[in-house]
Amino acid sequence: MERETGRKKNPPGEKVEHAPGYTPQNGSNPSSASVKAPSTARKINASNPVKNEPQFSEKCSAVPIVAIGASAGRLRAIQSFFQAMPANPGMAFIVIQHFAPARRSGLPEILANFTPLSVSEAKDGMKVKPDSIYVIPPALSMGIHDGKLILSEPVQSPGLRLPINFFFSSLAKENGPDAVCIVLSGTGTDGTDGLKAIKAQSGTVFVQEPKSAQYDGMPLSAIDTGLADFVLLPEKMPGKLIELVKHPTKNPDDTYIVPEGKQKERQQILELIRIRTGHDFSKYKPATIRRRLQHRMGIMQVESISGYLQLLHNNPGEIQALDQDILISVTSFFRDNDAFNALKQHLKTIIDRKLANENLRIWVNACATGEEVYSVLITITECLEELGSHLQVQMFATDIDVKALAFARAGTYSTGIETDVSPERLARFFVKRSNGYQIREEIRKMVAFATHDLIKDPPFSKMDLVCCRNLLIYLDADAQNRLLTLLHYALNPKGLLFLGSS
Predict the structure, then answer these.
(1) Are the folds of 65-245 and 332-499 the same?
(2) How far apart are CA 414 and CA 422, in angstroms?
(3) Cβ atoms 336, 51 nearer than 8 A
(4) SS (H, E, C) 145-202
(5) How far is CA 62 from CA 128, 251, 319, in A?
(6) What are phi and psi for residue 326, nearest 5 degrees?
(7) CA separation for the pair 493, 241 (Å, rounded)
(8) List of residues 6+ apart from 329 with CB closer than 8 A
């Protein structure tokens, strides 16, 4: 949106089993209640759906599906897992592994020797059935849609293929809060970005205890996200899985319903979070809160919201875990390329009309782990270089999650960003590290990260660009309308408001 002149300003007044996550993001989609920006504003966004954006679908598969990602050292872990699995668990298991494209996988035959479950190599269009194991074929990408496995030729070169991330993300969209993923032994970071998509939909994440893994790279990377619900030995996972599937909060009939008369308990829970953390989620959509509550109730094996409230009183650590669960979402670099291409053209217009002694001021709110912040900074840097401009850049990036802000300040990301960042940008703006890529120091110095609650704290002002792509989707219509007014106030005349594409 572009702010026009002449508007009157109205200032706004180690029990590793439940490791929590990070921050609300991926916002767009202000609400089903058609929230409109001020009539003087002009949108800058794209019509295409945002990749990895939470869909919040209420459709869940009739068959509980568990995605298992594994790489080097996988055989021992997979064998331990399935030897502990009973003959009729009522679940389907999808095994995604790494191997050379030209090499045939012998895993289906090997698995058949130590499990009574049906084992087969996945085929395109194959319907997923309970009490079955499906193994990804070599050299193909695999997703899932309407309960059927979808195989395709990967678009990335062999060195960049991340099949575990791809399937986890697909399962997140397919099964929403019923999605379950497991990260087992392996090198690298594949699965890390995919499990974030699972958690954004209130799904469940299991990770192998790193000391039990032949190669601990993938488990450690998964644990470092802070999103693992359970960190267990492979042989301990089946029992916990069966408990979760049978838990009453996982019943599709009541997944999206708060029992009548229980709204008071939910309000008390939100008040406990506010007192303990300072985070006020009372303006969040009820469906978002219900989903996060039911996920934690399932993890803690509590059958009623009253029982969960009592647990929170007795276990303050669970308040922190629930708080982090509500903050969770997913993001990526250059999310929705069309939107960033449009942003680049409008930024050039703003830069062109700036005087040499002026600054370019940007505010990215609900910035989470920083991918969007650095995407915007990279875009601005490219604009300045292409125009031969030497304007000083002042960027403020804010969030309520201090853990996410610390991650963003460090600016180090897994190798999974190779699917979202071009090789040219990786070479120009990142430094290769042993654990992934780090944003170059000269880019990190352009941004000041700070804790800020957009709902209750005064907004920044005199901004040329305000980005709010990662929050509105979670808020109710009243909060959305109020925040749109605040964001408009924060802008300079002719400033840009960059929203999500929904």
Answers:
(1) yes
(2) 15
(3) yes
(4) ECCEEEEECCCCCHHHCCHHHHHHHHHHHHHHHHCEEEECCCCCCCCHHHHHHHHHCC
(5) 10, 11, 31
(6) -70, -35
(7) 55
(8) 23, 24, 25, 26, 27, 54, 200, 368, 470, 474
- Cβ–Cβ under 8 Å, residues 178 and 61: yes
CB 252 within 8 A of CB 60: yes
Alpha-carbon span 462 to 457, nearest angstrom: 16
Q: Name 485's Cβ contacts closer than 8 Å, sequence gap at least 6.
A: 10, 12, 38
**In a 3-state reduction of DSSP, which class is residue 333?**
coil
Across residues 91-112, what is the average pLDDT?
A: 81
Average pLDDT, the chain: 83
Whole-number Å distance between alpha carbons of 486 and 27: 17
Sequential DSSP letters for 383-421: HHHHHT---EEEEEEEES-HHHHHHHHHTEE-GGGGGTS
Cα dihedral sign for 292, 293, 294, 300? positive
Q: Is 376 helix (H, G, I), strand (E, B) or coil?
A: helix
* Candidates 2.50.20.10, 3.40.50.150, 1.10.3720.10, 3.30.160.390; CATH matching 332-499: 3.40.50.150
Pairing of strands 412-413, 491-499: unpaired
| Alpha carbon distance, N-terminus to C-terminus of the chain | 14
Q: Does domain 65-245 have CATH number 3.40.50.180?
A: yes
**Which amino acid appears at position 382 of this protein?**
E
Q: Of the candidates 234, 245, 197, which has an alpha carbon nearest to the alpha carbon of residue 90?
A: 245
Q: What is the pLDDT of residue 329?
A: 66
Cβ burial, residue 66 (10 Å; 0-12/13-18/19+): buried
> pTM, whole model, 2 decimals?
0.76
Q: In whole angstroms, what is the distance from residue 199 CA to residue 25 CA?
A: 12
Helices 286-300 and 305-314: angle between axes, nearest 10 degrees:
70
Residue 98: strand, helix, or coil: coil
**Contact status, residue 136 vs residue 97, Cβ threshold 8 Å:** yes
- Token match 């650590």: residue? 317
User: Which of 29-43, 180-194, 217-231, 277-291 has the weakest average pLDDT?
Assistant: 29-43
Dihedral of alpha carbons 229, 233, 238, 243, sign: negative
The beta strand positions in 102-140, using DSSP E, are 118-121, 132-135
Determine the average pLDDT of the residues in 379-404.
Answer: 93
Q: Is 479 exposed, middle or buried (0-12, 13-18, 19+ CB in 10 A)?
A: buried
Residue ranges of domains in the chain: 65-245, 256-327, 332-499
